[in-house]
Amino acid sequence: MSTKKNLVWLALGFLAFMSVFGEQWRNPFEPVVTRRESEQLNAAMDMAATNPVEAIAMLRAENGPEASAALDFAIGNLAFQANDLEPAAQAYQAALDKLPKFRSALLNFGRVRLVQGQTDKAIGLYRTLVADGQADADTLQLLGHALLMEDDPVSAETAYRQSLLLGPEEADTRQGLAKALMRQERYTESALLLGPLLKQDPFNAELWSLRANASIAEGNYADAAQAIETARRLDCANSEMLATLGDIYINREQPVEAITAYEDAFAGTQPSSARLLRAAEGLLLTGDTAGAENMLARAESGLSEAPRPDPDSARSLLRLKGALARQIGDTAGAEAACESLLRRDPLDGETMLLLAEIQDSQGRLEEAVMTLERAARVRGFEADALARQAQIEVARGRYNRAVELLEAAQAFEDRPHVARYLEQVRRLR
Fold this sequence. Notes:
- The protein contains 24 helices and no strands.
- The protein is an all-alpha fold.
- It has a domain at 346-429: Serine Threonine Protein Phosphatase 5, Tetratricopeptide repeat (Alpha Horseshoe).
- The chain starts with a helix and ends with a helix.
């Protein structure tokens, strides 16, 4: 039986039970039903198993301003079970209008708001339960989830820890707490929680992903690769995890392993263009031009089919196509890609540096110098542009000018290898 069906049967059965006790059960957190309402609830419980629409209609016929909030609550549960979220929300709100502290209505109303993505409203409902002392482990867990979705990991951590006091064996709560700690950059604490969880549920891909991300955040790429490789052997690693594994192998200068990971990640799927472009960039760094070309073709296909192509991905595609063309010796293609990029963004410093490199390789030194002068006026690219211009001046025997350029480059960013080069050029004057 599904979770929603369990909610319906348990709630309706409990409301029928309350009717037997009448006034003895009256409190601000749960409604009292009349004998007739109890009979209607029991009948609705039976009918809902085969015809939930008719069960809702029957309860609505009995409902009204003077009726118990239990009827509105039962209608909300049946609508929620049918995934009719807004009618469910309206029914729960009606129940709360009659009994503002109705515990079960607050709890289930919060569930609906979470499914609807209205996490701020869910948080308000769950905090009402906490303030009234009516929050159980389940409520606190849901509050933690909502707070995490609202990017409030500190409060989420508090909710999860309180939930664990009441339900210490709840794996979902521990997983939520691990995520909250990750968001606070408390990676070691998060990893300590993930270890026992993985022993209990070794086929849980999300747990392995969290373990890998915690290791990456700490700069421990070997452990991250091991975590994803373990998930891979257990056949529970998803495409994003395998693509991340490819990135790790690129960073560790293991191109063969990287290519295998990328191939597995993208086999039979159409990942995002951004993901494909990151893979292509990594493959270019390893010199695998064929693999990079394949990734770029797939990324270009995805962008062309998208109703609204991401402009950043489109620029990255052009830049990487230019880099690929440069590697395979297609100078004209590389230059065309650079010119296209600069028409889109005249202040693209990275592209200017690549274009200057192409112009320099063809002996078009004056053009290269002009391009580098433009790049030197772009914030963040001054030092690189000046240093590269100095190299051209050294090649032309203009050592005094090269020294001036290198000194200017060091003024923007003091780098040891440039300082050594500067001393060498000074000795040439």
